[in-house]
Amino acid sequence: MSTATPSIRQERLSELVTQLTGAPLDHSRSALAEAMDRNLHAGDSLWDVADALVSVRTLTL
Question: Deepest of 18, 22, 26, 34, by most Cβ within 10 A of its Cβ?
């Protein structure tokens, strides 16, 4: 069960990035995954979401 929890959490966070930016879900998923890799899975979901939001918004400008 613990292996499924991070993927469910990551999917929900990706959906949040999609809702906040209007970007397609696949873009949000990849932006969040890249943010989590950059932040070394520090366990700070807010930091990961903020990083993904900036990444997605930068790509759409």
Answer: 18
Structure token digits, residue 21:
């930016």
CA dist 23 → 2, 34, 35, 42 (Å): 29, 16, 16, 25
Q: Are 32 and 10 spatial neighbours (Cβ–Cβ below 8 Å)? A: yes
Instruction: Using pLDDT thresholds of 50, 70 and 90, give the confidence band for residue 49.
Output: very high
In whole angstroms, what is the distance from residue 35 CA to residue 49 CA?
Answer: 8
Determine the Cα–Cα distance for residues 10 and 56; give it in Å rounded to an integer: 16
Does the pTM surpass 0.90? The reply is no
